[in-house]
Structure formats: C-alpha cells, structure tokens
Amino acid sequence: MATVSKEAYNRLTENRPYKFDAKEVNYRDADGDEKCAGCLHFYTRKVDGFHTCEIFRPADDSSVDPAYVCDFHSVNGTDFPLLDED
Description:
Elements: H1 6-14, H2 22-25, E1 28-29, E2 42-44, E3 51-53, E4 68-69
Antiparallel strand pairs: 1-4, 2-3
C-alpha cells in the first residue's frame, strides 16, 4: 500500500523547477570531447530515450542534444572545464 496519495504525487509533478535557458549556459554544438552525454547533469528517460538536463531546459521543451554542450559541463560537479570565470 502506498504511503503517498495520488493527489500528493500530482502536486509534486505539476510544478517543474526553474532551469537556465540556452543563452544563460551557452548551450551549443560541442567542439571537443566534452558533450552533454558525458555530463553529470545529463539524464536519459528510459521509457522513450528523451534527454534532459538538471540545470538547462530548451525553450521549446525539446530533448537536450547529447552532442551539444554548455559552460557548466562537469563529470563530477566540482570541475567545470568549459566555464570561463573571469
């Protein structure tokens, strides 16, 4: 027996969290080895292969392109090799 109601589930899933847009994270076609597909923030939904990112959302809600990259690419959440922090 579930301990959480369907109503609670619906409340949880109806509000998506804020995410950065393409301009804010410099989302672009990857030039080198760093690609979204190798990033800590990148996820693939098993049911249909839809790609998503925990920090970036395309404006049209499309799938995140695994061959693209952004400045916050990281394999460990600590190092960001593409981020230019002047």
